[in-house]
Specification:
Layout (H helix, E strand, L loop, with lengths): L1 E4 L21 E4 L6 E6 L2 E4 L6 E10 L5 E8 L5 E7 L18 E3 L4 E7 L7 E10 L13 E13 L7 E9 L8 E8 L8 E8 L6 E8 L8
Parallel strand pairs: 1-14, 2-11, 5-11
Antiparallel strand pairs: 3-4, 3-6, 6-9, 7-8, 7-10, 10-11, 12-13, 14-15
Amino acid sequence: MYKIFLTLSLALLVGLNAQAQYCIPDYSSGTAAGDYCDGFELGDISNFTGAGLDYNDYTDLSTLLIPGLEYTLTIHNCPSYTEYYAVWIDWDQNEIFSASEKLGGSDIIISAGAEGTITFTVPFTALPGETRLRLRCVYFPPGAISACATSYSYGEVEDYSVFIPTATDYDLGVTGVDLETACGIGEENVTVTITNIGLETISDFEVAYFFDDPVSGLSTPVVETYTGSPIASY
């Protein structure tokens, strides 16, 4: 019987730093005038650093991305200026951020002090193992943002790591959790969406999750058994 634990920590799978020889872009002024990414969030990565260097190697921070699943990353912009952003993931691990690897396919514009999101689906062609994610912030670029250009005046680059598992490392994925909550009711309806991201049809599995009581600090485990129709491979 398969078990899925929603609170399972995946950080243990992604502890190694990327060692690839990626380009290191530069700016003429960089973050000196207040143009920078204030925070970045994706999966297990939550990094709020404020104004750093022009180029920042955060590849010690990593998250797990499963092929076939959709993810949304969040970028928190600096408080002073509107900035343009682009994010790439080196899916084929060739140490080059190609145009097809730009998440969402295009740059996004975020107003001063605001946040923006990019939603993307991990391609099934992504090579398994650790690879690099690059975020680039540019103040009004002359065209589409390049991952390696050194001709920009203001902005910042941040590099992170992501880990792509092999198909044999996973079978099922939790692709949505909906908690129906309101003041004064005694029961909560929890809907968990499961996607078969493995290679075979799957049935007879359990989903385990926990309710955290903010008052007592205790966690109450709940285990549900799936008894519906077999779920075909994604």
